[in-house]
Design a protein that fits this description.
alpha+beta
Length: 308
């Protein structure tokens, strides 16, 4: 294990497979810290006993800003879609903090020195007890050409160290056969055969009999988020009719969250829960035959937890 804070510049050569190209070099740190930059903080190599894949992983420590994290310059093409992923592990927790946010980020610098940033993936409330976890997402490069594209990690609070391993950025290659593959899945999973037996009276030519089947109810769950304010509004009958006609599942957007039904107006008694809007929405949806999903009562974001 060794430590250093370095900036390494090397020739970028993409490693291409049969269907996609790997944009990152030394993605598993098997060649030390070559191709990776750790500006303003310390990076250390971990040996195989502490890595997720292969012989090494990388630890970022002595961070003084939330945006500080290992980075690498990559090559992307305008308008193309890419998948990014990495194994990550929080090394230390901060006292009194529920957890850390980890993000995969891509920045684009254009010829006029303007910038664009894309948050590719994010996981909140991660602790050291979670161990290694895989963070993944996809992004589309801007339509205008960039003079530099950088993949990097960020999010954890200053003073928090984290390890990374087996990072990857690959182009998402279009499958020209996608429609046939999708149709095959629909045929196998979304459809089934029905047999209709028709009994006719004497003298009826069965070749001229027409059977019409009208679907009156869906068995496959098809749902949406329902705005409870609109749902209980007497003037929003068209909104309610649309929900009842097209969906058989629903979830209320915010009305079942603790802060929403305990957000009293000045004229109301403090600490008296306001259940009416949420319950009226629930009763209306159930009466229309929809199944419902609820919400977790406690959302660990301070702004959405009642003061009392």
């Amino acid at each position: 294990m060794f430590a250093r804070a370095v900036s390494v510049v090397t020739l970028m050569v993409m490693t291409c497979g049969m269907t996609s190209c790997e944009m990152l070099q030394n993605k598993g740190f098997e060649s030390g810290m070559t191709n990776w930059n750790c500006w303003g903080f310390v990076c250390k190599l971990l040996d195989a006993a502490d890595s997720k894949v292969g012989s090494h992983a990388l630890v970022a420590s002595n961070r003084t800003q939330g945006w500080q994290g290992p980075q690498q310059v990559i090559t992307t093409e305008p308008g193309k879609t890419y998948k990014a992923q990495s194994w990550i592990k929080i090394i230390n927790d901060l006292p009194g903090v529920l957890g850390q946010k980890m993000e995969l980020e891509v920045s684009f610098t254009f010829p006029d020195d303007s910038h664009d940033y894309i948050n590719v993936a994010m996981r909140p409330l991660v602790t050291s007890g979670d161990g290694w976890f895989l963070l993944a997402g996809d992004f589309q490069a801007p339509l205008k050409a960039a003079k530099q594209t950088t993949f990097y990690y960020q999010g954890a609070a200053p003073g928090v160290s984290f390890a990374i391993d087996e990072a990857s950025v690959t182009e998402v290659v279009d499958d020209p056969n996608w429609r046939n593959v999708t149709d095959d899945v629909i045929e196998r999973l979304r459809k089934s055969d029905i047999n209709v037996q028709v009994t006719t009276g004497a003298g009826v030519d069965t070749s001229k009999v027409r059977v019409q089947v009208v679907q009156t109810k869906k068995s496959f769950p098809f749902g949406c988020e329902v705005n409870s304010w609109k749902y209980v509004d007497p003037n929003q009958q068209k909104f309610r009719d649309f929900i009842h006609t097209h969906f058989n599942w629903a979830v209320q957007g915010n009305a079942l969250k603790w802060r929403q039904f305990d957000w009293n107006q000045p004229s109301e008694a403090l600490g008296t829960p306001l259940y009416a809007r949420a319950l009226n929405t629930i009763n209306g949806l159930i009466a229309a035959g929809l199944k419902l999903r609820g919400h977790n009562m406690v959302w660990s974001v301070q702004n959405f937890i009642p003061d009392s």
